[in-house]
Amino acid sequence: MDGDPSAWSPDGNLLYVLSWRDGHSCIWARHLHATTKQPVDEPFAVFHFHGTRPSLSYQTDRTLSAGSNKLVFGMGERTGNIWMAEWHAQH
Q1: Nearest Cα residue to 18 out of 52, 43, 54
Q2: What is the C-alpha to C-alpha distance for residues 27 and 21, in angstroms, rounded to an integer?
Q3: Cβ proximity of 30 and 13 under 8 Å
Q4: Whole-angstrom Cα distance, residue 27 to residue 46?
Q5: Closest among 57, 67, 61 to 7, alpha carbons compared
Q6: More confident of the two residues 57 and 8
């Protein structure tokens, strides 16, 4: 769909893609004709990752695999802490 990593469904009639088409790194799919494997409709969202903490976009090696009733992909999580303190001079 736009050059991102992809995976065929086990029956070959669906193509899953990691895509930025909605401005976020999400999983999209497209139905394919059973014989010609040409697209038969528009891409549709399978799973959105619009949050800032867990995301597909933190991965350096973005991969996607499809199995029977399963999608396998790497996902990262970004966290952080802010610590504040007041320092008092000692005399």
Answers
A1: 43
A2: 10
A3: no
A4: 5
A5: 67
A6: 8
